[in-house]
Design a protein that fits this description.
single chain, alpha+beta, seven-stranded antiparallel beta sheet, about 25% helix
Length: about 170
């Protein structure tokens, strides 16, 4: 599928937008309309190697996907790679590009694509996944803009898959 792309202008400094987007723990605050059961795969939710697993809710199907930050070039680029679908056989890629504008204006560009095998390609076509994902990511960017421009408190932290054993003192 894809690549699909979306962009939006947000009236905040680029560094602030980058810090928010590079922390996977913040993702449910603007993507929970199409991603559910979101959980982190390690204690550290930001930086190269930070990962998350979630369910992508689509018409006719719902698949598990994961993503991990593979590259960070502060404050303008975040690249993610992951897998999903049955037996994790669909490779996924997401790229976030942040560009400075006049004043404190930041343009956020998103590109997302999958690399399915023959069986999964047919399922993506049958479920209109590309159209649906395009619409969902555009809505996510609108929600991101509203969240960052409103300066509301940061969202609650997410649980890590399996929990934090060190917080309870249990080895």
């Amino acid at each position: 599928m894809g690549p699909i792309s979306a962009k939006i202008e947000i009236d905040i400094p680029r560094e602030r937008a980058f810090a928010f987007l590079s922390d996977l723990g913040n993702r449910p605050s603007f993507t929970d309309h199409f991603l559910s059961d979101f959980h982190l795969t390690r204690l550290e939710s930001s930086g190269v190697g930070a990962g998350a697993r979630f369910r992508v809710e689509q018409p006719l199907r719902s698949v598990w996907m994961d993503t991990a930050i593979s590259e960070l070039e502060a404050p303008y680029l975040i690249r993610e790679r992951g897998n999903g679908g049955r037996l994790n056989r669909i490779r996924t890629n997401t790229a976030w590009e942040l560009t400075e504008g006049p004043g404190s204006l930041t343009t956020v560009r998103l590109a997302h694509w999958t690399e399915p095998g023959p069986v999964d390609r047919g399922l993506e076509l049958a479920s209109a996944a590309s159209f649906w994902q395009q619409r969902s990511w555009r809505e996510a960017l609108r929600r991101l803009r509203d969240l960052l421009e409103s300066e509301t408190p940061r969202p609650a932290r997410l649980a890590v898959a399996g929990g934090n054993r060190y917080a309870t003192g249990v080895p």
